Protein 1
Amino acid sequence: EAGVAQSPRYKIIEKRQSVAFWCNPISGHATLYWYQQILGQGPKLLIQFQNNGVVDDSQLPKDRFSAERLKGVDSTLKIQPAKLEDSAVYLCASSFSTESYEQYFGPGTRLTVT
Amino acid sequence: DAKTTQPNSMESNEEEPVHLPCNHSTISGTDYIHWYRQLPSQGPEYVIHGLTSNVNNRMASLAIAEDRKSSTLILHRATLRDAAVYYCILRAFNTGGFKTIFGAGTRLFVKA
């Protein structure tokens, strides 16, 4: 079974530029999550989708971050404009449903903002 | 949201058992206790979870205190591959399903 795919794996941008990350969840998984992990900390949930609807985006900085999952499968997370403090690993995870006890994580995208 | 407390780091010898503690004194009756681990340069992976009873699976065992205010993840024979950050998480079920809040975790060092 293929795991959660993310791209790119690494990205370096200058502050005030924009960037987008892509995630392809495990086939059949209705729930998709985006996490931000700052160095030395645990992952922090940014947004959770159930199919193409948003379940929880309470910790998403909506003035600069946006995410979509238009067809209920792939998802993109965008940052515009980026700030230095956005430097982190962005992790995508999926689960069969919101009631599932196990989330499957992708390898992450490491973003460096200079 | 209920909070967990874990030691910042622990050290173990290879092929010895490891007991990773977690305190969660504000746990509510419906909170599930989950453990994930994160190997270097990878995303977290599920290890085990439980509600009230002790649990065993191929990766580890989870011992839950009778009052549920603490739990212990047990790795029966640590290997070098078990060196990772281990997260103890309380997953509360709300209207949107389970909400997962990660803490800083315990970094496990395994010595050969």
Protein 2
Amino acid sequence: EAGVTQSPTHLIKTRGQQATLRCSPISGHTSVYWYQQALGLGLQFLLWYDEGEERNRGNFPPRFSGRQFPNYSSELNVNALELEDSALYLCASSPGTRTIDQETQYFGPGTRLLVL
Amino acid sequence: AQSVTQLDSHVSVSEGTPVLLRCNYSSSYSPSLFWYVQHPNKGLQLLLKYTSAATLVKGINGFEAEFKKSETSFHLTKPSAHMSDAAEYFCVVSDGYGGATNKLIFGTGTLLAVQP
């Protein structure tokens, strides 16, 4: 069974540009989560999507946004990039909210974003 | 609010000796707790999870953890360390009571070094 996949693996942008990161969940999972792992700040929750809707959002500015497609894959968009957005962005998936195992999240390998 | 505290930022052991990584949690209700491992430049891999069933939880690669409510602890152990165990380990609590938020709250991580 394929795990969570993310693309691209690495992304280099300059300040002010926009970045788009993509995630495909494990087959059968309807929930997708995004986390940021920045140096010195640890792992922080960004966004949660389930069945196409945003369910929860972490303490990040509105220029961090995303969406979930009908096939449950997801996109994270970061607008007006700042230097401090440089981080590893991890995507995770879990079974949907009406399942027993809804809290167990399985992570992808991440996208490393570097903002110059 | 849920939180976890990893008591050691770095732990060094010799190959073949026991591993103990300490974690305390704070929760206003019965929590779901996890341990994840992150090898260098990789995503997060689920080691084990506690979801109010047996208090001694067995995970992959010989790791196990014991939930102790009286001590609010969820320490990770392994009887005999292997060189491949060298990685960063995260103790995690789910903020998803009743599926309300489902976000994971991460500890600051413990870097495990294994000496030959």
